[in-house]
Specification:
The structure holds two protein chains of two kinds.
Chain A (H helix, E strand, L loop, with lengths): L2 H13 L20 H15 L5 H6 L3 H10 L5
Helix pairs in contact in A: 1-2
Chain B lengths: L2 H14 L6 H22 L1 H8 L14 E2 L2 H4 L12 E4 L10 E4 L1 H19 L4 E6 L12 H10 L2 E6 L9 H11 L4 E6 H14 L9 E6 L3 H5 L4 H12 L3 E6 L9 E3 L5 E2 L4 E6 L12 E8 L9 E13 L9 E8 L8 H7 L3
Parallel strand pairs in B: 1-13, 4-5, 4-6, 6-7, 7-8
Antiparallel strand pairs in B: 2-3, 8-9, 9-10, 10-14, 11-12, 12-13, 13-14
Helix pairs in contact in B: 1-2, 2-3, 8-10
The chains are: A mainly alpha, B alpha/beta.
């Protein structure tokens, strides 16, 4: 599974949404499933899956799926 | 001032931190923001417009800014956005019989609150997210109502990882969870967060009673939510910190002063034990009888100012808390701007504060 697929799977699992909802423009707090509680679950699963440690700036900046890719790229996760 | 320059000023404040702007530089930037917010709310909130029309219109300094009494948020639905833009309604802590305040947030104000809180707290506890022990029960978050207590825990949870909850649903100590947490993170940096009175009663006193000694040598404790009950029990901040150290070995303890009506721009206690106005907020003290501004060193009512709220008219609020500004730009911790102490609450006001109301049903 490549990193794009892994990322998609993490979003689906953490937020409880369908794969086709996970697009780069999907935005925090625009769907009921991606609220601040789910955000913490999402962050924990991203850290586990990609073996990174995200800091507080990262999780505040992670407002879209696209942003999540940019932030993970800082930690050498390639998309 | 336009919305664009308001945003630009906010960016400056996000960059600033506690060490780069002295009081005079900071108040110039903040005053620009507050003048913008005044016009913004006067145009969008009829109640604010009517109240502020009675006050000074020449806004030369903080003391000229119109202000609302915090209790108005209990009596009226004050908002500066159409209903369709209400994203969350935050209710303040209030025990049965008390009317909770309702604070209306749109996405923008809500996001700004989180961003500001993170910016401020990072400067006291660092950017790294630490294993976190929350001195509350896990059910506090499941509560559907978006209370200030939930908001406080959710906001602070951003600073942690592998969150564990130290209390059972009935607020008794969950020693098993605490022991597991200690075992897993022994001698590593950890973060503890809770509401002041619950930390004292349900955690520290409970550990003492069960003769449990913890060793969080690298731990930090952040707490908030009111001192009223502790003052009644003659527990000062010094006694609080000393006891926390004895029971948990935690040396770094940061209290913060904040309220549901101005979530985000919190006033955090420094290493020297004083509360500091962050880049995004400030305070002035008013005489409780005449409401005239008072000088540094004089004790009176605290008026809090925050650049955050655009969805509700709460950028300038007269609280029911009594405090003293101790100085500006010269705290021994090195942070610039005003630092102060909260002495207590006006007598005959209602019991409020996450920590005090949470205890009411349990004590």
């Amino acid at each position: 599974m490549d990193n794009n697929e892994k990322l998609k799977q993490v979003f689906c699992q953490a937020l409880g949404i369908e794969a086709d909802q996970v697009t780069d423009s999907l935005t925090y707090n625009t769907i009921e499933e991606w609220d601040s509680t789910a955000h913490m679950i999402l962050v924990a699963e991203l850290e586990d899956t990609f073996d990174v440690m995200l800091d507080t700036d990262d999780i505040i900046d992670m407002s879209t799926v696209g942003k999540a890719k940019e932030i993970l790229a800082k930690y050498e996760v390639q998309f | 001032m336009s919305e664009l320059s308001y945003r630009h000023n906010l960016d400056t404040l996000f960059e600033a931190g506690f060490f780069s702007l002295n009081q005079s530089q900071k108040s110039t930037i903040l005053l620009n923001c507050f003048r913008y917010l005044h016009v913004h709310h006067a145009a969008r909130c009829e109640e604010y417009q009517r109240i502020s029309a009675l006050m000074s219109s020449d806004l030369k300094g903080y003391e000229d800014l119109p202000y609302l009494a915090v209790r108005l948020f209990k009596l009226h639905e004050l908002k500066s956005i159409p209903n369709i833009d209400v994203f969350k309604t935050l209710t303040s802590s209030g025990t049965t019989g008390q009317i909770p305040a309702r604070i209306f947030l749109d996405k923008e104000t809500s996001a700004r609150q989180s961003k500001v809180l993170v910016n401020i707290m990072q400067q006291f506890i660092g950017k790294q997210r630490l294993p976190m022990l929350i001195i509350d029960s896990p059910s506090s978050l499941k509560n559907a109502k978006f209370s200030a207590r939930n908001a406080g825990i959710q906001g602070m949870a951003f600073f942690g990882r592998e969150h564990a909850y130290a209390l059972h649903e009935d607020m008794s100590l969950n020693l098993e969870v605490v022991n597991q947490f200690v075992e897993k993170h022994k001698d590593k940096p950890v973060l503890l967060f809770g509401f002041t009175f619950m930390v004292w009663l349900n955690f520290i006193q409970a550990l003492k009673k069960q003769k449990v000694q913890l060793s969080f040598n690298e731990g930090k404790l952040v707490h908030s939510g009111g001192w009223k009950k502790l003052i009644q029990q003659q527990v000062s901040n010094d006694i609080f910190k000393e006891t926390v150290y004895q029971v948990t070995q935690i040396e770094k303890v940061h209290n913060f002063y904040g309220m549901a009506e101005q979530v985000g721009s919190v006033f955090v206690e420094c290493e020297k034990g004083y509360l500091h106005a962050p880049p995004f907020a400030d305070l002035i003290i008013r005489d409780p009888y005449t409401l005239k501004p008072m000088l540094n060193g004089e004790t009176g009512l605290i008026q809090v100012l925050s650049v955050i709220p655009t969805s509700y008219p709460g950028y300038s609020l007269l609280t029911e808390d009594v405090g003293t500004v101790l100085g500006e730009d010269d705290c021994k911790c090195g942070r610039l701007g005003r630092y102060f102490r909260v002495e207590g609450r006006l007598p005959k006001t209602e019991v409020r504060g996450c920590s005090d109301t949470a205890g009411v049903s349990h004590v």
